[in-house]
Model the fold of this input.
Amino acid sequence: MFTQRIRRAAGAALLGLLPLLGVTAFAGTAQGHGWTQNPASRQDHCASGAVTGCGEIQWEPQSVEGPKGFPASGPADGTICAGGNGRFSQLDDPRGAGWPTTPLTSGANHEFRWQISVSHATSSWRYFVTRDGWNPNQPLSRAQLEPAPFLSLDYGGQRPPSVFAHSGTLPNKSGHHVILAVWDIADTGNAFYACSDVRFS
Done:
């Protein structure tokens, strides 16, 4: 009888802990952080279903995390759009220049927008663009990008809100280009990467 009471009490205690254990397990495995929605990134197109055959990234658009320090270090050439993460290699596939493009006005002011699922202390937000004459049929490399970002925003270690937007001036370009957005994290060795196919007019 005494043993049965102990078993019942232990079982009740375990049942009471299950919700807490579930929350802890979920929080411990959360890998996601953020991605660009304006201009729409490749992972955003995959998550929305506008592009199919994307593999795992369709469920994890926020997870394109790789080493920071770009362009001096960071993801290897040909793996930049996936942040060097082989799980998301579909983002590096140029698809015959077939990714949907966001129309932009050359030299205009633009509101850049990120969706943030897990906030981080942030060093900066930086935006690179492909050179004139780049080859849209090849995976993105440093040689295809202008060497310096056309826009940088110092964030001073602050944590961004769940929807982070800021304005900046677009480069003077025409036709199809790729904008590479880099979100540099202040308190880890990583950054988040997002490639957006755009068409300047």
